[in-house]
Amino acid sequence: MFKLFLKIATRYLLKNKLYSFINIFGLAIGIASFVLIMLYVNYERSYDKFEGSENVHRVFMDYLEGGEYVPGDANAYIVSGPALKEEFPEIENFVRFRRIRDLVVLNNNTPYDGIVGSLADPEYFDVFDHGLVKGDVNTALNEPYSVVLSTSVAQKLFGDGNPIGQSLKIAGDATVTFTVTGVMDNTNRNTHIKNDLLISFKTFYTWKIFENDWKYTWNQNEYYTYVKVAANTDVELLNKKIMAFVPKGFEFKERHHMEPIESIHLYSNKPYEAGTNGNGNNIKLLSIIAFITLLLSWMNYMNLSSSKSLERAKEIGIRKVVGGKKSQLTLQFLSESALLNFMAILLALGAVFLLLPGFNAMVGQNLGLDGTQLTALMPYLGIMLLGASLAALYPAFVLSRFNPAKVLKGQVQTSKNGLHFRRALIITQFVATISLLICTLMANKQINFLKNRPIGANLDQVVALKGQILDRAYDSIFYKDFDVLLEELKRSPYVAEVGCTGTYPGDDFSNMNSNIQLTFPDGHTDETHIWYNYGARPNYFNLMGMDFVAGNAFLQTAEKWSHNVVVNEEMVRFMGIEDPNALIGETIKFWGQDWTVSGVVEDYNHFGMKSAVVPIIIRHDRNTQNVLVKLDQKAITMAGVDKALNELEQTWHQVFPVSTYNYTFLDQKFQALFNEDQKFAKAFQIFTLLAILIASLGLFGLTSYTCIQRKKEIGVRKVNGATIAQILQLLNQNFIKWVGLAFVIAVPIAWFAMDKWLEGFAYKTTISWWVFVLGGLVALSIAILTVSWQSFRAAIANPVESLRDE
Amino acid sequence: MLLQLNNIFKWVNSGGQRIFLLKDINLNVNEGEFISIMGPSGSGKSTLLNVIGMLDGFDEGEYHFLEESVHSLKEKHRANLYKEYIGFVFQSYHLLDELTVKENLEMPLLYKKFKGSERKAMVADMLDRFNIVGKKDLFPAQLSGGQQQLVGIARALISNPKLILADEPTGNLNSAQGEEIMELFKKLNEEDGVTIIQVTHSEKNAAYGSRIINLLDGRKV
Hints:
The structure holds two protein chains of two kinds.
Chain A lengths: L1 H14 L1 H29 L10 E10 L2 E4 L8 H8 L3 E10 L4 E3 L2 E3 L4 E4 L3 H4 L6 E2 L10 E5 H8 L8 E4 L2 E12 L12 E4 L22 E7 L5 H10 L9 E7 L3 H4 L12 H30 L3 H9 L4 H38 L7 H30 L3 H5 L7 H37 L9 E5 L9 H16 L3 E7 L11 E3 L2 E2 L5 E2 L4 E6 L3 H4 L4 E4 L12 E5 H6 L12 E4 L2 E9 L14 E5 L5 E6 L1 H7 L1 H15 L6 E4 H6 L3 H35 L1 H9 L4 H35 L10 H28 L2 H5 L3
Parallel strand pairs in A: 6-11, 8-10, 19-24, 21-23
Antiparallel strand pairs in A: 1-2, 1-12, 1-13, 3-6, 3-12, 4-5, 4-9, 7-10, 8-11, 9-10, 14-25, 14-26, 15-25, 16-19, 17-18, 20-23, 21-24, 22-23
Helix pairs in contact in A: 1-10, 2-8, 2-10, 2-11, 2-20, 8-11, 8-13, 8-20, 10-11, 13-20, 13-22, 13-23, 14-18, 20-21, 20-23, 22-23
Chain B lengths: L2 E12 L2 E13 L4 E5 L6 H8 L7 E6 L2 E2 L5 H11 E4 L11 H11 L4 H14 L15 H13 L5 E5 L7 H18 L2 E5 L3 H4 L4 E6 L2 E2 L1
Parallel strand pairs in B: 3-8, 3-9, 6-7, 7-8
Antiparallel strand pairs in B: 1-2, 1-4, 4-5, 9-10
């Protein structure tokens, strides 16, 4: 029996190619989008999930900002971990990481850069439940100058040989040798704090690189600290106790705070994060879209199948007359549905395989359909099967319910309920698509708004050069050579200007200091607001096109270092001073020193356009971290950028033959700060298009249904003088009404969603009326086009066909 | 002369064979005639009626309607022609179920761009003429078959056509109702001078007409 059903089902699908195609295609789009999005969502949600990860929390600092504690930096103090463990028995273990910036590893004087590494306590292996492929977990990080490498770094450094016991050096201090004591496998380890190289924390206390760092005091919160609490601990209570805890010798207006490690990647975006984290809101929105597209495709399926059923009324009538039972007919249609769904799933999986590389490129991930990923999708497979069977049951029941006597007489039964149901489906589909459309338009508007917003500095053609000198120390001879480098660079015809700075707009936090203590010119000391400072050389401002509202840049001094600072306007406001000119020449105090304000620059966005302008102080410093080069527009237009970049690199290596070298275009790096949002907007766009496509297919189905249903009416009207245009109007006006209704429902939904989304931005574009109108109009035009395709055919049909009396 | 068919052929191709639906039909109809088309099932009666009504085309021959050459007219002109001069009556009435009697009558006028007041007057006149004023707000389902056909005829007449084409107008009615309808046709023909062409199976109904055309396998006999 079942075999027969399948045979008939296959024949039926083959006979109605367009219908089958639309139906299978629509379902496949829904399923494929769902699978793709969920792969991505699952990946993003898989960060920091390991055995016992639910008991691991990161300790960070809250700042007292204007009388209230707000989440501050992502890291804590060197003594935070030990103090907390001693105070709270719930804390079983802790691990601290001290990031090593611009890490360059030397193996027999061959430099390897681009490796991410930290100093770490030996408890790392316990807290992060990470084992070693080679070496002993219990001793690997116990001794100073021991390193643990990831398998990929070990492979890069030592090839296939055994790395254990091998020695290597780290650029910056050639006097010490490190011994490899372990190899860890980082593949499939998704974590917000990536480490390809771990150095035993004990190294820190004696290593020359850190000789100026505070080692036993509450200074310098540069330590990512993770604690493992005992299972069944009341984390909320512990958190409260930790927040109230004032350790001995702790005198800052801060407090410790814990957050679950599992939620860091998606929900934490603090200053000094260990890396760029994901965006939980975007992930939530994407998941919603995934479910919407899947739902839309099911609705579509129900719609199409039940409208198609009208054409099969006669078949059903005959089957019933010859003795087919309702249950048998239901089963027949169910097997058809099953076949159709099965094909759709196959098609969808095929599409996922084909689209995955492109999708990966778009979202910047390397997602695969391997075992673990598929297992993660299993719960959703249940949802998919449940939805598919519900979607399949509906048309099966509708079809098998037909009254044979009536259908055989040619009376197609048109149940009002059925029509209402389908209408509701279509309206729901359009509510979803119009909302998505409006959101897409808004997201694009916001990103364009941010892109075109003035930064307050001119980043065009500015290149930051950065490198590590490998063969010598950063001593006075180095500084002299560094000046030679600057002079040489300035001499290049491609270079308009050369400057030096610790950090620049769009850069990470590595050379930016955050502070919470500042004495204003009037003697008042503020300890409750965060402000930032970094060092730069005098020509930095000119090179960056930063305009002074008062005073001037620090003067070049013989010793290349003065106690001058330049502040931004926000800093002036922070100090409560009305006229920036009043601040020039005044003295402020921080870091236990006096500083004279030499100038005030216009506000600029240091941390990208997503965050607001913060109070910043720029110190006069003979910085060497970043050499900024402003390229000469004319010269590089003539010769090409590549040539200019080549020359810069040659100059660099002439002065520092043994060194690493990197360059970054500032504008690109600044724009990259909203790469995530751009990717998100793009993904949103694509899935919106798919949703529209699905909804159009549904509309197509419903129109064909209506056209069949109103065939006689159309005939009668035509015979009585109606023109094609009038028939079209008759058929289309209802759909237009529905789209209108959907629009009215969609507007507040989209408004609400976008309002929420925009909360994540410091600078928001306006939610303009035209976005809504445009979204509605696009949906309407698509609807009219889809509907007209069918209704036009119905309108031009010869009424003789529909009015035949037989 | 109202219309003239000269050597009309209509065929379909099926499986490499040409099957003739109409074969060499010649027909002259003068204004004021009442013609009955008769013949067994499948003899081409309805097809002929549709061709005359310009709802269906033909493959060969000439068709003149009020001095217009229908065979050389474009679809749009042809449609305008039948909309203006021809009214249709169907076996199963083909009233719109969602519209009341009054609205059903008004429907053709809407498509002919009559003003609201004119439409009202014409509908009222027609309701009056057919004695169905009391039924004007009822829906087709609330009427008997004969009453429905009455409305159908009223609708066909409302825009003053020169020709009424009726495809078995009494086919769904009992004999008493059928007789009533035929009497109405006769009255319309004799008193109002409306030309009528009807398709019928019944000799009795055919006798109401002034002329009978017999068809067999698409051919006049």
